[in-house]
Write a structure and sequence with these properties.
Helix content is 69%, strand content 0%. With 170 residues, the chain is mostly helical. It has a domain of 75 residues: Single alpha-helices involved in coiled-coils or other helix-helix interfaces (Up-down Bundle), CATH 1.20.5.
């Protein structure tokens, strides 16, 4: 029972404190409004009221233009900061280049990829070369036309073959 009484007592004290705090907040708000916001002096006639509203709208337009200009400057600055950060990261080398894989591509296909499909460039390098006929020397013909290898060996074997070899060299 003592617990319930003390709990209700605490609640009533807290309620009183909250009411006092709300009154203080309201008084503080009124005091701040009196200091920072001068009392509104409305002209007596309709014409004067219209002029006052036009003046007020003009001030609002000027403030909106300033806000827009400042917003544009801030956006431009943030864009420049982002670009500079990217440059710094690139210069530091933190940007890792992906490993490139080998691609088999002909020279024609490579040029077409670089220059685009508009340019038709042919890289047939062999077409530009001159054809040269190869002259065959007589000594080479003799070496190639050896004939049957068995006969060559029989000719060189024995004393007669060595004599012929000796005579042909000198």
């Amino acid at each position: 029972m003592l617990f319930i009484v003390s709990q209700s007592l605490m609640l009533s004290i807290a309620k009183g404190l909250l009411e006092e705090e709300a009154k203080e907040n309201e008084q503080e708000r009124i005091r701040w409004m009196e200091e920072n916001c001068p009392p509104l002096s409305l002209p007596g006639g309709t014409q004067q009221l219209m002029e006052f509203l036009k003046e007020l709208h003009h001030k609002i337009d000027v403030i909106d233009e300033e806000r827009y200009d400042l917003e544009r400057k801030v956006n431009k600055s943030t864009k420049e900061i982002e670009d500079l950060n990217i440059k710094v990261i690139d210069l530091k080398g933190k940007f890792k280049k992906p490993t490139l894989r080998k691609v088999r591509m002909s020279a024609d296909a490579m040029l077409q990829a670089l220059l685009g499909s508009k340019h038709k460039v042919s890289m047939d390098l062999r077409a530009n070369l001159k054809q040269v006929k190869k002259e065959v020397k007589e000594e080479d013909k003799d070496l190639r036309n050896v004939g049957d290898w068995r006969q060559n060996i029989e000719d060189k074997s024995g004393m007669d073959g060595r004599k012929k070899m000796f005579e042909s060299e000198s």
